[in-house]
Every structure is written in C-alpha cells, then in structure tokens.
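hi! just following up on the protien thing from before. the input was this:
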Amino acid sequence: MSLKKAKDLVASIEDLPTLPEVVIAITRLVEDPDATAEDIYKIVSTDPALSATMLKLVNSAFYGMSRLVTSPEQAIRILGFVTVRNIALAAFVFDAFLTGKGRFNYKAFWLRSIGTAAAAKVLAHRLQIKETAEYFIYGLLRDMGLILMMQYFADELVETGKSLEKGTSLADAQDAAIGCTHNELGAALAEKWDFPPALISVIRYHSTADAPEEFRMETAVTTCAAAVVTVLEIGESVDPKICVTTPETWETAAVEPGDLGAVMDEVLAEMDNSRSFIKLIR
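and the predicted 3d structure came back as:
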C-alpha cells in the first residue's frame, strides 16, 4: 500500500476539479493567528453563493440559533473561522462529486456519508467537544477517496468488489486493483487541495490503528461513527463485511457497550438536521 502511488494517481487525473481561490484564501486566513472576522468577511463577500449559504446554515435547525442572523459578518462571528472554512470545503466537494460517472449508487454513498457525519457530531457532543460541527465534516468527508474511485477508477472499483466477494479484505482488494487504498487516495487528494491536517489524518487513517497521536481522537470518533451507521444500515458501504472496530478505538471515543442504544437513537434523530445541512450547501 502506497501513499506515493495514490499521489501519482491523483496527479494523473486531467479533469480533477481545482480548489476555488475563495476557499484557498479562507484556509490561509484561518491559519493566520492575526486574522479577524472582518478579514474573513472580505473574502466570503466576494462569493455571494457562499455568503447566502452561511446565512441559511446559521439560521437552520442544524445550529439551532435562538434569534435570526441577518448579516454574513455576524454569521461568521457566530459560526467561527474554522466552521466557515469547513462549510466552504464541504460545499466545494459536493459541487465536484455529488453525482458522477458510472453505475454506482452515488445517492447511497452520500446517504452513508451524511449518516457518518451525524454520528460523529453526536459522539463529539457526548464527549463535550465544543466544535461538534468540525467532527460533522470529518464524518462527511472521511470516505472522499471512495467517491474519487467511483468517479475516476470505476473498472478497478468493480474488480475490488469481486475480490471482496471472495473474502479479500477491503484494503488488500483495493491495493491489488489500483496500488493503494481509498484512504490513501483520499488523503492524497486532500493534501493536494491543502485540507486541514486533522481532516487529512481522518481521511487517511480511519478504520486503522495507525492514526498519529495528535489526531487520534478525531480518527477514533469518525471510525466509531461509521460503525454505528453500518449497524443502522444507513446508505451503503463498499465493504459487505462489518469493519471490526477495536476496543481501544471505542475507548478513545468514550463509548461503552451500554451506550450504543442511546447513541443510535441520537444519530437517527440527528439525521434530519444533517440532511438539511446537505440541502443548504448544495
């Protein structure tokens, strides 16, 4: 398995979407400790669609504001710089990959991604993590490599499915088909697009035990979130087998066996808000 191979494959895609300048500029400002809400607003205001999206989002059930927010600048102050960047990233990925080529069930793929996002937000809330919207994005985009395979490596993905039917593991099947896993392919694309380090780590190391210590919590939460969604049968997984999530991963995410029933109920309740998020950024 090879991240280098994944980077080579990403580099070989001629019609790969380019990250918009507004998203690049927002990302740079988020990383600047001296940046202000006014600085972010000046960038966001150059994109009327993004400004409108943020206003719709901050006033939606997803955030549950008690009062109407009427200005994009106010929305930026309420949402926070990181959430603004994540909204811009999610909107871009959805524009690029909401539907695609081939015979794959894109609707089922995104439904599962929405479910994983909802579950990650629920688990982050249970952990009393303040930035639950950050974890929502981790869950939403963790399988970005799969959508890339569906879009650009359809024949190889079909071969992967045939290998899975014979009992081959997902990682080995993908490695045999294209020389890397969807984790590595997604991480290579995320690096090319200069995604935040935590998001790149979640994309690369989800469902593995290799996440760097710095991002172990983010990776564990999204891995457990995906396991919950598999049990709930939300959307479709590329792997017919239920991925084994280690006790250490559940422990890192602070999920006890007795918690799972309540977690699943909360995830199902959160799904409506999560669907609304997707509709708003499209």
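The CA atoms of residues 35 and 111 lie 35 Å apart.
The chain has a mean pLDDT of 87.
cheers
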